[in-house]
Amino acid sequence: MDLDEFITSVLVKVVSGIREAQQVDSVGAFIVPSGDGGHKYPVNARVSSSAQLKSTIIDFDVAVTVESSDKSTGKGGIKVAGIGGNIEGESVTKDIRVSRIQFGVPILLPESQKNWFDELKDK
């Protein structure tokens, strides 16, 4: 999977997962509730609540692998320096480099459209 596809997939799944959880009976209104009347949330550097907006930062710590290879045909053996092999007369040498990328993406959390007060009152 390419890096851009991975990032897109994670962000879409986080937001759609929150929306799906908000549809669950008897708990959905409590997941990123709207109309919380300026409720003070516990201090957390990754979450912010201001007026009607609630946001967070999704942190990524991704290992990116870059691989290049040299193929040569003919007879040969296993190469000791590096990763290599001998398959039916074909020798493949690979150079693999791994780098880490760390970054954060701020997102606004979708607020529940259900009334949490009514769900609490009905219990």
Using brief descriptors, characterize the structure shown.
four-stranded antiparallel β-sheet; single chain; 123 residues; elongated; alpha+beta
Can you tell me about this structure?
This protein has 123 residues and is of the alpha+beta class. The protein has a domain at 3-63 and 100-122. Helices cover 22% and strands 40% of the residues. It is built from two helices and four strands. It has helices spanning 3-22, 116-122; strands spanning 47-50, 53-73, 83-87, 90-108. A four-stranded antiparallel sheet has the order 1-2-4-3, covered by helices on one side. The protein is elongated, with a radius of gyration of 25 Å. It starts with a helix and ends with a helix. The model is unreliable at 75-84 (pLDDT under 50).
Are there runs of 5+ residues with pLDDT below 50, and where? Answer: 75-84
The total strand number stands at: 4
Main β-sheet, in a few words?
4 strands, antiparallel
What is the count of helical runs?
Answer: 2
Radius of gyration: 25 Å
SSE succession: HEEEEH
What level of helicity do the residues show? Answer: 10-25%
Q: Give the overall pLDDT as a whole number.
A: 77
User: What fraction strand?
Assistant: 35-45%
Strand order, largest beta sheet: 1-2-4-3
What is the overall shape? elongated
Structural class: alpha+beta
Query: What is the CA-CA span between the terminal residues?
Result: 45 Å
